[in-house]
Amino acid sequence: EQEKEERTYQPYTEIMSTLPKVRGFAPQHLYNHQGFWYTESNLPRVMAVQNHFIAHSSDILLATNPKCGTTWLKSLIFAICNRKLHPSTQHPLLTVNSHQLVPFLELLYTNNEIPDLDILPSPRLLATHIPYSSLPQSVLDSGCPLVYMCRNPKDTFVSWWHFLNKISNKELKPSTLEEAFEMFCNGASIVGPFWDHVLDYWRASLDRPQCVMFLKYEEMQAETIVHVKRLAKFVRCPFSLEEEKEGVVDEIIRLCSYENLSRLEVNKTGEAMFGENEIKFHTFFRKGKVGDSSNYLTAEMTERLDRISEQKFHGYGLTL
Ligand code: A3P
Q1: 38, 62, 290, 309: most buried, per Cβ within 10 A?
Q2: Looking at the annotation, which residues are catalytic?
Q3: What is the pLDDT of residue 7?
Q4: Which residues of the chain have pLDDT under 50?
Q5: Residue 280 Cα to ligand 1 middle (Å)
């Protein structure tokens, strides 16, 4: 059995040896697959997802570019979908990190194994960083709701830089801000180019608004109630008027807030394996603010990122 499964992954390693490779804004080399950059350890998993994952129409998928608020979105979706099961005083989010409650799809394809995901309870809540155009066809065919959250590239970049430096070790050298910035602008970041990833989902949300919801971290921060209600409706768990009156929406927002989650013991001291990296949960909580990048980027850097956004998004009606 093991041998059979290893054979399944063998072609991916062979394909990878033929792909363009760069030293990217990541702790490892990056490989280009279908226009996007992946780490050496993640790409075989992404290929396995593409070949083996069968989506169900009842699934709820959540997609992000790393550092765009994945931890928050996972918490919100989990809390929204499971609100009837859990009283707020004993909620799983109080003792378990949201990355364990809503796993990354690609990370389930680990150790050369093809997991049986049909055994997961319905609806399956799964997250991914895979770009829209590289999702398995079955996701598109299933018509399952797909929620995408993006964030302005300045805060995303600064958040990434801090994150990578925190998880770096002897083999994985940290980059200076300037080095990392160059690579990010050139598109060489995990699932980068950042702008292409965003545009991929933005266009999908325009083409198939019933299946793809596009959220912005900044809007979510500014008008959390409005967007949490939209989100609940989109994932087919709308709040009733009664629930709204009883304050259920506010309670979920409070439970999932940066202030609440970041102070919990599990998120202060807990850790888990993400593929082959052991990551402490506190690295997913840094400041949780909009605009913190202005404390790190020079005026020239800000201007450069703004210019790339203008060029890349020109004609698509998207601003970040
Ligand atoms: P900062 O580094 O700017 O603080 P991801 O979850 O995709 O890895 O993104 C991490 C970013 O989201 C970090 O941004 C983190 O602080 C912020 N974040 C984590 N939990 C949050 C929450 N509950 N509400 C708002 N922002 C949150």
Answers
A1: 38
A2: 129
A3: 65
A4: none
A5: 14
State the closest ligand 1 atom to the C-alpha of 221, by its place in the atom list counted from 1.
Answer: 25
**Ligand 1 neighbours by CB, cut-off 6 Å:** 64, 66-72, 155, 159, 162, 256-258, 261, 284-288, 292
Predicted local distance difference test score (pLDDT) of residue 287: 97
The CA 116 to ligand 1 mean position distance, Å, reads 31
Q: pLDDT tens across 57-104, in order?
A: 999 999 999 999 999 999 999 999 999 998 778 899 999 999 999 999
* Rounded distance between C-alpha atoms, residue 127 and residue 263, angstroms: 24
* Separation CA 93–CA 284 (nearest Å): 14
Residue with CA nearest ligand 1 atom 17: 288
Query: Which residue's CA is minimally distant from atom 24 of ligand 1?
Result: 258
Ligand 1 centroid to 286 CA: how many Å?
7
pLDDT at 229: 98
What pLDDT is stored for residue 277 in this prediction? 86
Task: State the pLDDT at residue 238.
Answer: 98
Residue 163 alpha carbon, nearest atom of ligand 1? 2
Give the pLDDT confidence score for residue 6 in this predicted structure. 60
Give the Å distance between the CA of 156 and the centre of ligand 1.
9
pTM score > 0.90 for this model?
yes
What is the position in ligand 1's atom list of the atom closest to the CA of 293? 3
Residue 42 confidence (pLDDT): 94
